Task: structure prediction
Amino acid sequence: MRVLLLTPSTFGYEIRIQDAFARIGHDVTWMDERVGNSFATKVATRLGLLHRIPSLVGRHVDKIISQAKISDVEQLIAINPETLQGSEFAKIKAALPELDIVIYRWDSLAQKPVDEEMMAAASAVYSFDPADCDRDARLRHLPLFHTYSTPPSPHDKKNAEFYVSFVGTAQLRRIAVLGRLCKALNAARKPYFFHLKTQSWIHQALFWFAARRHGYTGSLTQKQLPYDSFLKVITNSAAVVDIEFKRQSGLTMRTFEVVFSGMPLLTSNANITRYGFYGDAPIFVIDDSELSLPDLSTFKSIGISSHFEQYSIESWAKTLVEMLPDQNYFTDSPLRANSND
Result:
């Protein structure tokens, strides 16, 4: 399959996604889904201001259409589109009516809604969020993925540099939860690594006051932690913390990267208990309003390797490119078994 892949530039995942499609045998051309990656452009996009400059977005769509024609692609796969809205997808579909358009969301619809024009233009629309899929039967449930090539070995927690770690984007809820964790860890004299990235100096100032209020003593910076450094932090941690966004039921990328590394995971997302690998992996669901430090020595990985292929980036890519229907990822009742056949 000749595929035009549109993704935002996010922590290098656009490269790993492109490589995954290539490994399963597809000819992939990548384009940045965003018009630009400056702070001002990102803010304008997320606030809907970019579409007040229709010529700018229009030129971006024309480039996409031109690239699709040059590469003679059969399918356009848009991962978590922000710049492109329904009218843009409609324009692409009108210019290339035989082109299959596949859209994947790794944000909840509460954060980034899918409009009717987008639904009409797409051959398939997927979401990582099962609650959104329950609310709209046109959405196909597809969780995120891990990027490892081999199943994990048992994690040695004895010589870890950090008792727990967290690396992610700064937000008020995360500062509040991590602040409570900082207090508990400091009281227990447990080392930790918390790195929160802010989007601008304005956010930096606002979050600094929140950090002081909640007792957050980790890193708060505009600098992004390089991916290699992120992996090094995980490797040198006895456990990793995950705190999902509000109004989100889907599991984060961090969840899969940690679980399938064989490491213990402390997560505030109770929805993880529904997934097939829960119970086979060292996972502790934390109550983010009343935190206590778990005893990591009780965490044991039973059989996470049996779920390795199902949640791999290759399996995720295969589902998208082949436009497969819902699969049952849950241990309780199926979400909507094959509702999109």
Notes: Confidence is low (pLDDT under 50) at residues 334-341.
